[in-house]
Amino acid sequence: MDRVEKLKQFLAANPHDSFIKHALALEHIKAGDDLIAQTLFEEILSTNPAYVGSYYHLAKLLERTGKRQDAIAWYEKGMQQAMKAGDRHALNELRMAYDELNDEY
Fold it and tell me: Total domain count for the chain?
């Protein structure tokens, strides 16, 4: 059984587990299923806005698919949540990606 199917089984047993949903989204990115990955990240962040790691990956996906303004908005939301959580590592990672995207234009 491949990783996506295994993660889907785990998610079926634990439908509100952000970690499993995040891992599944990353597997969909690897498989080129960006729309499914985007949907999963957005589900995570709508139900668990404190799940800081998903902001970076969602914004990067949006950036890669040409949705620059959406990416910027998610970076900004992620930075706010990282500050709220006191997660300096995530804040720095989000800020660097945000600054890099803004420097390109």
Answer: 1
**pTM, rounded to two decimals:** 0.93
The CATH number of residue 67's host domain is 1.25.40.10
Which pLDDT tens digit goes with each residue over 34-64? 999 999 999 999 999 999 999 999 999 999 9
3-state secondary structure the chain: CCHHHHHHHHHHHCCCCHHHHHHHHHHHHHCCCHHHHHHHHHHHHHHCCCCCHHHHHHHHHHHHCCCHHHHHHHHHHHHHHHHHHCCHHHHHHHHHHHHHHHHCC
What's the sign of the alpha-carbon dihedral 88, 54, 84, 104? positive
Cα(11)–Cα(58) distance, integer angstroms: 19
* Averaged pLDDT, 19-34: 97
How far apart are the C-alpha atoms of 28 and 30, rounded to whole Å? 5
Domain span at residue 91 reads 3-103
